Amino acid sequence: MNETIPHWLEKQNELNPEHVAIEQPDGFSMSFSKLRNESRNLAENLITLGVKEGDHVALLMHNQIEFPVFIHSLSYIGATAVLLNTRLTAAEIAFPLSDADVSWFFAGEGLLEKAEQARQASQVIPEGRLLKVDDIPIRKAETLDLKKEIHLDQVFTMMYTSGTTGNPKAVMHTYGNHWFSAVASALNLGVQPEDKWLLCLPMFHVGGFSVLMKSVIYGITVSLIERFDAPVINREIRNNRITHISVVTLMLQRLLEDLKDDFYPNTFRCMLLGGGPVPETLLRKAELKSVPVFQTYGMTETSSQIATLNPSAAMKKLGSAGKALTPAEVIVEADGPNEVGEILVKGPMVSKGYYNHTPLNKEYLRTGDLGYKDDEGFLYVVDRVKDVIISGGENIYPAELESVLSDFPGVKEAGVTGISDETWGEVPAAFLVPEEGVTIHSEDVAEFCEERLAKYKIPKAFFILAQLPRNASNKLLRRELFSALEKEN
Question: Which residues sit opposite 120 in a β-bridge?
Fold first, then answer.
């Protein structure tokens, strides 16, 4: 049955019209009433332009205020947003334009040239159907028939997976997926009228986009940051009553480095940490600074988090991603507690599948992630199945090695991947980013590891990099470590 709810932006305009929906560090702010009116006006102009219900509309845009306005305008039309990674090349962008059957393409500031190159390479979008968002013809609003309700089973967004093997796939998110993701998070973390969520993750990824959904569903303020900047963010948290922020490991590391001897105010309640396994050392540093870190587990297919560590267990279960959120299920395909196996998930926030692929109609979604549950049922994420190094029949999890290597004095960041070996089939190789002015000797690192790792886990090769390869969400791209080494040399 197709369940409907009132359009969430109409509802906030009714309940909280003057409450700030979005603000920026430069002093700009937009109320829910203004966000609603601008989104409706843009929707009417898009309809006049030719955009219609059911169209797949691609958006290539950085974290600009026009992003949420554009997204909400599509929800008033009933069109589907295809969100594109701004860090991709034009050639890479051409694939989703074709794969997602995009009929309209809009670009943000500074991205029109790349968008045009992608449009030409895709050969699927007519020339007149690529526009810069700022150049959309503004006509007098004609009070067209805009959506008053949201159909929970209708596809709202498509986001492409990273495509570490083969071509990327478009994860289809329904309005219901985003709704239940936000509701599940609220049941775990709680919601207060004065909440203010700082958004520095890219909005074209699910971690950033989910903050927009929380804002319009909860009726809370989003503090929008165009790009990650540790001093700017720490200043906002200290001086602008930020209560929540979503980050990945590298962001937390840089925020703590910039924080130095300072502390966050008591008004700051939640550092939501996702993006994969986290070095325990980093969590300990955060604990010493009284930073309220809540580690999460989720993926694009789960519309952001599906498991989060309950605040009451944050320090007792350091390193855990917690338990499944209220409407969700997370199980580990293993023989029992503390046994590593593949993580399977189920719930109303889980996507039903990928566009132009067979629906994910199985009871549980196989995540491709490895983890275990302890005796009390708390989930610990070990690694990606694809990242596992199998050496002489033994499984080696890169994240475990990276955690140890990050503890070596002078190592700022560490990445581990497998290299071929005639004897063992595969052995681990370490890529280290030294702190400024520090020289690292591989013999010293190997000796350090000998005290902390089984012999077969110790990296057999060490390489120095200026920086590790990461995607737009700052997740480590282990398969690109050797390519990064070649580029630097």
Answer: none
